[in-house]
User: What shape does this take?
Amino acid sequence: MFSPTQLVITGGNSISDTLGCAGATYAVLGPCDTMATLARNGTYSFHWSYLTADDAGPAGDIFGVIINGTFMALSDPGGPITQSGNASFAASSSFGWFVNCTDCIGGAATATITNFAFAQAVPEPSTYALMLSGIVALGLIGRRKRRSGRV
Assistant: This one.
């Protein structure tokens, strides 16, 4: 579920909910992901809250982020069934969130993202300096060709 103020991601609760999910594997990232991703570089800040109804607790349903294609857990597999926090990450190519129902049985997990903020990555001054020097060089080359009679 997505609205202007929050994103809710719910993991599967059965092997049939997610293709390729063999089930009965705890606290291991595998093929049982429900995810939302954005293909933009920049800094992402947000508040997250997590709740699992899984009999195995958080070890059966892992919540986390995907930074440039790399998965990183935010929920603590040994922690309580309700967890939350604030986070901020810089991504150079893509960013997203996932819930992985590693066991695919025993109850679903839900992660809610709120207070989302995004800041586009700004090029460093050296990037602008390099671009400016290239433009100046092209201008000088063009000027030199015109003075020598070549166009």
About this structure: The two ends are 60 Å apart (CA to CA).
